[in-house]
Amino acid sequence: MAQYPTDYRYTKEHEWAARDGDLVKVGVTSYAVEQLGDVTLVDLPEVGTEVQAHERFGDIESVKTVSELFAPVSGEVVEVNRELDDSPELVNEGPYDKGWMVVIRMSEPAEFDTLMDAARYEDFVSKSE
Amino acid sequence: MTGELQRTPLYETHRKLGARLVPFAGFEMPVQYEGIVKEHHAVRQRAGIFDVSHMGELTLRGPQAVAVADFLVTNAVAKLAVGQALYTVCCNEEGTILDDLIVYRRGDEDVLIVCNASNRGKISAHVAAVASGRCDFDDQSDGTALLALQGPRAEAIVRAAGGDPLADLGFFRSAEGQLAGVPCRAARTGYTGEDGFEFFCRNEDAPALWDALMSAGEPHGVAPAGLGARDTLRLEAKLCLYGNDIDETTNPFEAGLGWVVKLDHGDFIGRESLVAIKEAGIRRKLVGFEMVGRGIARHGYPIVDLERPQERLGVVTSGSPSPTLGKNIGLGYVPVAHSKIGTRFGVEIRGKVIEAVVVKTPFYKRAK
């Protein structure tokens, strides 16, 4: 089952990263969403926040759980999906499009290449089940 | 490492339904099937069926059975008519809560006590010790299954399953009967804030009873519901969860359970302490609150003063999004001076103080 977009990259914490030049759009994968269930709150940083790769940049909550969001790459947050403030369910409805969370301007573009591609991520998920 | 998890007789049923199973009180239990929010709405709007076979069932029998039960708990078991049940707590000598229970008087000399799964070992030993030499005690938990059918369509579903006399049971009444040919004891009790029934049956009969309720319920839109929805439903109805809202450090008065303490019902364990606690007056109180700011309060989060956030007022005992209200709600202990409806305080969520306000409880009350 090719269920993860092949033009995206992935982290072990189940975030996806989509690159456009120096900019990387970030969200969580459909696998993460399945595990979470109904997303009830997404806590995101302000525009201008500096984030570090593999470090927490926010939180995502479902009815029963709180999980941390980890940045796939280092850089500055240049855009935040504020629609998630009032409509966190967008993450369930479209984790790869309308459920995106932040756009990061990369300070270390080489970091992007260290992320898993779709095939490796799929393998990683199947092994962690 | 955790010990081996027990399975209820409906384990295979849950697997087939695609439930997510999690360890809970030593059992492998379904936390959700299709999703907590969907299941929550199914129970509020139609009906849901829960496997709660992990709960403990303890029986007392003999001429002294009622007197023993009466001595064990704070509420007045001796006043129950045969077929009647009550909600109560069971305290220690200090007047703090060992467990909350439903006590069913099944006969003149026959009492059934239902306790929380997480407390079963403790309560079983406690009840056995008190019963020793006075009446017969039996812990029937391992051989007994418990199914809960909850929601506005519950009564119609019981009728459709051929359980007509049972469908006529009054609130907190129970009776022996049959449902689709399966022998069971039905009780008009539950833990969701909705009308509904609970069915006790032998383990081997549980899958047939589940299937009968599911098929009779299908035209009514019944859904299997897991422990996740059970928790959000009970919280909206402000029903306490042992281990969260009440435990051996809390007394029934501060927990808002003074109504199950009948100090004049004769001698019972903890009575002297409870008299003293009542006379001295409580210092803190379990209140319901709504989040004003964006955030979800969770068990264990500090409750702080809004102006002086370094001043800790109390602690959140339960917190969750409320699917029915579309708000984030919670319960927590605060000093009596901060317990009035409309009082504002802060909940510390991952280092940030988010405003909350004390509201009237239950958060949700069904229309009669």
Strand content of chain B: 25-35%
What is the CATH architecture assignment of chain A? Answer: Beta Barrel
CATH architecture of the domain at 11-52 and 143-236 in chain B: 2-Layer Sandwich
Specify the CATH class of the domain at 11-52 and 143-236 in chain B: Alpha Beta
The main β sheet of chain B shows up as: 6 strands, mixed
For the termini of chain B, the CA-CA separation is 48 Å
The ordered H/E elements of chain A are EEEHEEEEEHHEH
Q: Kindly name the structural category of chain B.
A: alpha+beta
Protein model, in words:
The complex is a heterodimer of chains A (129) and B (368). Chain A is of the alpha+beta class and 129 residues long. Chain A has a single domain (9-110), classed as RNA polymerase II/Efflux pump adaptor protein, barrel-sandwich hybrid domain (OB fold (Dihydrolipoamide Acetyltransferase, E2P), Beta Barrel), CATH 2.40.50. Chain A contains 4 helices and 9 strands, in the order βββαβββββααβα. In chain A, the strands form 2 sheets. Chain A has a 6-stranded antiparallel sheet with strand order 1-2-3-9-8-5. In chain B, the strands form 4 sheets. A 6-stranded mixed sheet of chain B has the order 10-11-12-9-3-13, sandwiched between helices. In chain B, strands 14-17-16-15-18-19 form a 6-stranded antiparallel barrel. In chain B, strand 16 (312-322) and strand 17 (327-335) form a beta hairpin. Chain B is globular, with a radius of gyration of 21 Å. The N and C termini of chain B lie far apart (48 Å). The model of chain B has no long low-confidence stretch (mean pLDDT 97).
